[in-house]
């Protein structure tokens, strides 16, 4: 910017417009602001830690295991819409408190390396049942947002004020990131088909706060941003 103000239009090293470099760098900052808030090292008087929200089913709770056992379906389905009767079956479970209360933990509370800011779920059971399951299994007592099956989590995420969210369903992952909310996809058999997730796919929650955990840092190094004009590429 200084060189441009002094009347120099082109960068002598690359031959590109100074303003093109400025726009490029601004876009880098904007993207990282969205996808890597934990890397924001600016001084903020209001900053009190990263606010991370968690999905419940198939993140901390083994919903699919209980569901497939209940309805005699194969374990570890390869896609989320694995049951033709899922709407009908979910409706039949709506008030089945015992079904939800007996679900097993997928990630025990002692293995969560941070205190969740909130939970956002698309369950169709009463919120009180989910809160009771969380308390029964020793999870932090944090707000629970319920959006209903197949409804968007974007508004709930914005309302909660989270910086990061973790989900297992690709559709939620994609929608949240498109809305500017950094979301990680927790690895599962039903989302393995989506290969373009790259370093935002995690196998455990430690990888959120420690990107050098095996797999994440390597994927970030592979990320390439292509400038629309010319053939200049920048490796992160």
Summarize the structure in short:
By secondary structure, the chain is α/β, with parallel strands linked by helices. The chain has helices spanning 2-5, 18-35, 63-71, 86-93, 97-101, 127-136, 154-160, 170-178, 206-209, 216-222; strands at residues 52-54, 118-121, 144-146, 164-167, 182-186, 201-202, 224-226, 233-235.
Q: What would you say the CATH architecture of the largest domain is?
A: 3-Layer(aba) Sandwich
Give the helix tally: 10
Q: Which word captures the global form?
A: elongated
Strand order of the largest sheet: 3-2-1-4-5-6
Major sheet summary line: 6 strands, parallel
List the domain count as a whole number: 2
CATH topology of the largest domain: Rossmann fold
Share of β-strand residues: 5-15%
Supply the CATH class of the largest domain.
Alpha Beta
Low-confidence stretches: 223-236
Mean pLDDT: 85
Task: Give the radius of gyration.
Answer: 21 Å
Please report the total strand number as a whole number. 8
Q: Find the structural class using helix and strand composition.
A: alpha/beta
Determine the fraction of residues in helical runs and give it as a percent range.
25-40%
Termini gap: 22 Å
The sequence of SSEs as H and E is HHEHHHEHEHEHEEHHEE
Instruction: Name the quaternary structure.
Output: single chain
């Amino acid at each position: 910017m200084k060189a441009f103000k002094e009347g120099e239009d082109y960068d002598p090293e690359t031959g590109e417009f100074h303003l093109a470099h400025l726009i490029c760098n601004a876009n880098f900052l904007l993207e990282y602001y969205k996808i890597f808030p934990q890397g924001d090292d600016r001084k903020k008087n209001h900053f009190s830690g990263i606010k991370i929200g968690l999905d419940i089913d198939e993140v901390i709770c083994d919903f699919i295991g209980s569901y497939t056992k209940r309805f005699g379906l194969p374990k570890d389905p390869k896609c989320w819409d694995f049951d033709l009767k899922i709407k009908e079956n979910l409706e039949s479970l709506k008030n089945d408190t015992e079904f939800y209360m007996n679900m097993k933990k997928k990630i025990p509370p002692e293995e969560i390396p941070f205190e969740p800011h909130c939970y956002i779920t698309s369950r169709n059971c009463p919120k009180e049942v989910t809160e009771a399951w969380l308390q029964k299994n020793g999870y932090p007592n944090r707000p629970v947002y319920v959006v209903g099956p197949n409804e968007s989590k974007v508004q709930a995420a914005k309302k909660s004020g989270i910086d990061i969210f973790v989900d297992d369903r690709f559709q939620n992952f994609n929608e949240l990131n498109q809305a500017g909310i950094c979301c990680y996809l927790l690895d599962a058999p039903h989302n393995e088909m989506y290969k373009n997730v790259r370093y935002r796919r995690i196998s455990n929650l430690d990888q959120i706060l420690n990107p050098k955990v095996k797999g994440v840092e390597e994927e970030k190094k592979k990320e390439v941003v292509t400038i629309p004009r010319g053939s200049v590429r920048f490796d992160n």
